[in-house]
Write a structure and sequence with these properties.
The chain contains nine helices and eight strands. The strands form two sheets. Strands 2-3-1-4-8 form a five-stranded parallel beta sheet, with helices on both faces.
Length: 215
């Protein structure tokens, strides 16, 4: 499958992607992952991207697209891919369309995960993350707490609430998403590949996507 997952922060894109990858061997790809991978690999594009990130600047779209081009041509993408949170803007979507045509790849669908604002706030404000950079395990104080309060089950490091997951920070992230990323649903609707699903129950979302792919 070749799918783009769209949705606000906390909509469950990462969770849905992980479940879907287990079905047919497709690989989950996010902008952050490919940027970190390119930097760690020490590629020329990775070094250029790292210079922007160290300066606290956004990596230009052209550079991101060049790194994405390299990533999509790697062997593990032959079985398919799930783009998690990418593209983020209309220009990125247009550039991705051109890239997929150049690579002779056909997009199956863009899935918009529809989650109420109250649910997103509840999910993210109760999320906790392992502070160990090598672990980064994610927990939820309500639905999936650590066995020992405040301590990561996997590595024993402290679990914390990220600065961007306070209610104030999340509200700002949602405003930014509504302004810059939400219009992508209209773009992919015009492209004829949009599927919108109620994303409050993971199994239901996965089944809906499977059913659509099998029609």
């Amino acid at each position: 499958m070749r799918i783009i997952l769209l949705g606000a922060p906390g909509a469950g894109k990462g969770t849905i992607a992980k479940v879907l990858t287990e079905l047919d061997g497709s690989v989950q790809i996010s902008t952050g992952d490919i940027l970190r991978g390119a930097v760690q690999a020490g590629t020329e594009l990775g070094q250029k991207a790292n210079a922007f990130m160290k300066a606290g600047d956004l990596v230009p779209d052209e550079l991101i697209m060049n790194i994405m081009k390299e990533r999509l041509q790697e062997p593990d993408c032959k079985k398919g891919f799930l783009l998690d949170g990418f593209p983020r803007t209309i220009p990125q979507a247009e550039a991705l369309k051109t890239l997929l045509i150049d690579l002779e790849m056909v997009l199956d669908m863009a899935v918009s995960l529809d989650v109420p604002r109250e649910e997103i706030l509840n999910r993210l404000t109760t999320r906790r993350t392992c502070e160990n950079p090598a672990c980064q395990a994610i927990y939820n104080v309500k639905s999936s707490p650590t066995k020992i309060a405040g301590i990561c089950d996997k590595c024993g490091s402290k679990v914390i609430q990220r600065e961007d997951e306070t209610e104030e920070a999340i509200s700002h992230r949602l405003e930014t998403w509504n302004e810059k990323t939400a219009p992508l649903t209209g773009y992919y609707e015009k492209e004829g590949v949009l599927m919108t699903v109620d994303a409050t129950v993971t199994d239901d979302v996965v089944k809906a996507i499977q059913d659509r792919l099998n029609t």
